[in-house]
Structure formats: C-alpha cells, structure tokens
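Can you give me the bound-state structure? Components:
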Amino acid sequence: MDAAAALDPETERRRQRMGLLARASAAEFDAAWAALAVLPEVTDLRGPETGLVMLTGRIGGDGARFNLGEATVSRSTVRLASGHIGFGQLLGSDQNRARRAAIFDALAGTEEGRRVVDRLCADVEARLVREGQRQEAETASTRVDFFTLVRGED
Amino acid sequence: MYVAVKGGEAAIENAHRLLADRRRGDRGLPAITEAQITEQLSLAVDRVMAEASLYDPGLAALAIRQARGDMIEAIFILRAYRTTLPRFGTSLPLDSRAMRIERRISATYKDLPGGQLLGPTFDYTHRLLDPTLLGDPDIPDPAHRDGGLGDLARVSDILDGESLIETEADNGAEPGDITRTPQEFPLSRAERLQSLARGDEGFLLALAYSTQRGYGRSHPFVGEIRIGLATVEIEIPELGFSVAIGDVRVTECQMVNQFKGSTERPPQFTRGYGLVFGQSERKAMAMSLCDRALRAAEYGEEITAPAQDEEFVISHCDNVEATGFVEHLKLPHYVDFQAELGLVRRLRAAWQERGDLPEAESVEPIGEAAQ
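Here's the bound-state model for the whole set.
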C-alpha cells in the first residue's frame, strides 16, 4: 500500500504488529499473558464490541470499488495504568481476542511488555509462515504438468 | 387486508418445541457441533455467508444447524442477525492479485505463468457415491510439492498487454450500497455486483445457463478462476494508518467474452466479473456471466433476454426477499379470501341468470373456508 510506504519505521512496525495480533489464537495470547512478569491494569476505553465492516472489491479485479458484503469485526480500545493506549481489531465475533490484541498493542509501548509482545508476534508470524508454506506446497502438488503425446504423422 | 386475530399462542409454542425436538433428532446420536459444520460442511457454510452477505464461518455454521440444514432459512437467519450489528466502517479493496492461492485455473491459456493449479476440486471426480466415507476412515495427508507457486499473473493482465481486452479503470467513484439506499434502476455496475454477490446461486446459475443456450448473446471463456485467502485491511482513524484484521476466502472469476466492436470501440474481448465469499466457483462463474449479460446496453447490444434485463435479474435474485414474498402467502388471508369468495359467488349468479350454465353442471356453493 502506498500510504504504508510513507510510514516511519516505528509506525510501520506497529502496523505489522497489529496485523499479527489480529491473527493470534486464544492459546497464543494465553501463553504470552502467562509470560508477563506483572499483569497490566487495564481500563476499557471502547468495547470490546462486535460490529460490521463492509468488505470491498474492485470491478474486474482492479477497476472501481464495489461493496462485496460485510464481515463481523470485533474491536477494543484499552488504556494501561502506564498511560499507553492500545487498539485491537480482528475479523469475527471473538471479543476476548480483540481485547487481548488491544492490551498487547498497548503493552508494546512499555519496555518489558515489548519483549513479550515481540515474542508473541514472532510466534504468530512463524505459525502463519508455516501454514502458508504447507498450504502452498499442497496447492503446488495439484499443478498440472502438461505433456504432448507424439502424434503418428511422421 | 390484515385483521388482528387472537389465538394460536399455545399451538405456536408447541410447534416450536416440536421443531426443536425434530432438529435434535435421535438423542442416541451425538449432537453436531458448529466446528464440525465449519470443517466438514465448509461449502455449505460458504454459501450461507455469501448469500447472507456476512462473512463469519462460526455464525453461518450455527445458522445452518438452527435451520436444520435448510440453506435459505440459514441465510435468512444470518441476514437478520446482520441487521442487529452497527457498521464500524469499510475495508480497503481486497487485492485478488495478492491472494494466497488455493486454486487457480484458466480455460484460455494452457501455459499461463504459475500453471493450472487444481486445488481441492470436485472436477474430474466420477460423482459416484463413495461408501468408503461411511464411518470415520483414515484420510491420507495431502501431497506436497516444493518450489512454491511462483508468479501467478492474472490472465486479464496477459491479454491487457496487447489491448485485446477491455481494461477496468478505477475512476475513484464511491460505490453505491444497496443495503443503505433503496434500489433505483438503472443501477451502477458496482450496485449490480453487490446484488449479484449475494444473489441466489440457483437463480443466477439458471440465468447464466440461459445466456449460453441463446437467451442473450454470449460467447464466454473462463479467463481465470482463482480461489484463495485475501487479507482484509481497515483504516484506524485514531492512528491514521491501516492494519490487517484477518483473511477471508473468496472466489474470483474473470469471464472473457467476444465483442465484435462498434463505431466507438474496436473489436476486443469484454469481461464479466464474479467475486464471491468462500469457495464458490459455480456461483462466481454464474455471477460473471450475469454481470456481462447485464452490460448489454453498455455495448449497444439488443436487450432481448431475461438475463440482460437488469430490473428482472436484480429484483428477483435475492432469495431472502423472494422467500418473504412467496412464503407470506401461507399467512392468514381469511378475510381477503372471504371477499374473493363473495365476488365469485356474485359473478356466478349473474352468469347463471344469463342462462349460460347447464343445470347439471352448476356447482354447489363451497363451504365457508376454515377460519
């Protein structure tokens, strides 16, 4: 995305982090939660709540936008006692995961929290890469290798 | 005409209790779970999400279970649930070029970059009932092939290089939203695509079939079908940048159609586009054929067939609306019918007075309709 290219490195890191937190499983959040030395004091600023986002496509794949249909999205905004504010938003109706995503987004602002969040995000990313590679190899196995039969003309 | 009547509360309550019992079925069998439906009846889940116009596999599975497998009932339930939620915003456009591909085929180019990737398809199966699936047989793991998928260029990009195919330009227009503004014909192509994306698969399939059989000019090729996971990104206004919130499975169909050219346009291939939630190839193909048929006026083609008639297609493709109007006929119309009954009696009396009806054929008055 063009807008993303213009982001400063720290903001871009946060953007990547939030994208990974959106895909973290409940178990991955639990493991990271258990790794925190001190559990954060959390104030809910918004939500957690579930609503809709209209997904858009492009006509013909790259033409004008059109509305494809909606998806459920859960989101949460939290403030930690340290003053750090975090945003969590992910597809689906799982408000607990959305709130956890917001808390870890906020924790990334604190020094000791950052280590745990980085570990969590690294784990999520590694899993996503593994899943992607497996799925890619499975799809690749269904590639058609055409061969031409020798015709009897000569 | 509708009149308030009392009564039936106990019958309705018991009917719903009976429904719950029949839905559960034999208590000796384990109850089916949403996770089982999502995993093992995933294409049913995909269809419900597509036609309910709401992407949420877990809720779609719940709707299928609640509806006892009645797909249109499940679509209705999920569509109704949708109206209870606030809308947070709009996503950035899904990028089908960057999709994580699970299947990709082209009927126009054998050797397109990246090749033909069949994926988990029913194609080339023999459609014979498989008794080995009874019980819980061991299923072997899928085969693997290293080396990745490589460059999976779009077929439309290949044709585009020679200007042999019309290009889709992004004019930056804000798309109309049929869920927010009442439909007014003619619709924009964007609004038509939104309608078609949630239209009934059977209805659109039949219309698409009709264009192939001669009801509307069409000479289509499947330029490309791709199924895969597309990343959803939304803007976070408080932060001023966009973030990924997850991935959705979609099916895209680029249908390529012949066009002889007109005074304004050179001969070139034109396109019909289909994009549908989930793995829904039949629906995406039908959608792209209907999209192209509905563009007849754009190309100065004569509108002669139902599939080319925008008002006919779009007004009737929504199975929730269609169900509502067809099924309302079973609701009490007692007073309506009494009025019609009186009218027919008067007409018959007048007709008999004119002496047209032989005595033997005269029909006894029908008894009062059950109230």
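A couple of observations. Chain B touches chain A through 83 residues (CB under 8 Å). Chain B has twelve helices and six strands.
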